[in-house]
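Batch manifest, entry 17 of 40.
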Amino acid sequence: MPPFSASWPSYSADLASDPGESRNLAAQHPDLAKSLGIKPQQWNATLPVEYVKSGTSDDDQ
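Output type: structure tokens
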């Protein structure tokens, strides 16, 4: 999977009624889709710039 990009289209699903995520509800609820899309970016901004990437720790050897 490619890294997250803010240019990806919004996608929201109601997992309770659509566990297969076949219906995109973002157009019906644009404010909710926008606010939920911001949350991962806000969380990502709190992470340190440098981190141990998968497959590179001493524990992987």
